[in-house]
Amino acid sequence: MKNYEEKLKKAWQIIVNSKNVLLIGHLSPDSDALSSVSVFIDVLSSLQIDYYAFTLLKKENEYEYIPHSEKIQNTPPKTLKNFDAIIVFDCGSIERTALEKEILETKINKSAYIIDIDHHQKASNYADIEIRRQDKASTSMIVYDVLKANNWPITKNISEAVLSGIIGDTGCFTHSNSSAEAIKVAAETLSYGAAFHKIIKESTNKSNLLSLKIWGKMIDNIHFNRKTGLISSGITEKELNDLEDNEEDDKAVEDLFGIIVSFICSIKDVKVALLLREEKGIIKGSLRTNQDYIDVSKIASQFGGGGHKKAAGFSRKGYLERTETGWKIRNIQK
Predict the structure, then answer these.
(1) pLDDT tens string for the chain (334 positions)?
(2) Phi/psi at 199 (nearest 5 deg)?
């Protein structure tokens, strides 16, 4: 089924005819992943269809302005055998679901219909229906298309979730993916009751003393290779813990790193920006470029990640080490 509209309608029929649905967003979820899951929580609740919503490493009280986000669990279901359908949102690759083994077993056993809804570059084949549009600014826009194609009423909660995903992934319409369509859909959500000013405020009002400390440390840790045009910075877990000298609110620190890497990417003569942070034995990397001939998603894919041509990321086990020539990821010693 290559036709987009056909996929939207086929996926819908599978979902509405299911008795129990698993909704999955990527680990360390951002506003787009949570918003996409939240939309279908609203839909399935209205249809009185049982569901379980899951995103690993979801931080408590983060993105609480997104409707139904409190219903998304941080622990996986005990088994996938009870689900008729599994919908994966915004994951880029199956590894980012944190349920790779279980989902692949489900595919082999054909015990549930797997639907992949995403706007990232394709990483692998695992879904029965793959609804992927890299030209969409956010996965929540594709979710919105699913509902519109099937004449589902757009509630205030749905409109706010869709808008939250768009605002999050476009950086409040400052990123290069802020297309005319993204702005058009955002405007449509307002007609359904989305509180634009509230969502903008919640998305941007994240500055505190901890944020300023992280900015300072990341700038201090910058290394720029003028020959290659690669600018990089990193922060170790120890450095981050040293900054957190009290119980200050560290809400949306994940988004802060995205803002920082986009900022250093805009520096003159920079071709690629790489930001690394260490967290509980996991290195999270964010890549950005403003060059049309560079595809950072290909770089991220070498480390098991993915994303878009100009914005991508990855996660891998290890720890950070700063050297005279830049940052290195060392494997965890066994």
Answers:
(1) 469 999 999 999 999 999 999 999 999 899 999 999 999 999 999 999 999 999 998 887 789 999 999 999 999 999 999 999 999 999 988 988 999 999 999 998 999 999 999 998 888 889 999 999 999 999 999 999 999 999 999 999 999 999 999 998 888 887 778 899 999 999 999 999 999 999 988 887 665 677 778 888 899 999 999 999 999 999 998 888 888 654 444 444 666 787 888 889 888 899 999 999 998 888 999 999 989 899 999 999 888 888 888 888 888 888 898 888 888 888 765 4
(2) -70, -40
Residues of the chain with CATH 3.90.1640.10: 4-204
Q: How long is the chain? A: 334
Domain at 4-204: CATH code: 3.90.1640.10
pTM over 0.85, yes/no:
no
CATH of domain 209-330: 3.10.310.30
Query: Which H helix or E strand runs over 41?
Result: helix 31-46
Burial state string for 230-240 with b = 16 or more CB within 10 A and e = fewer than 16: bbbbbbbbebb
CA-based nearest residue to 30, from 186, 147, 203: 203
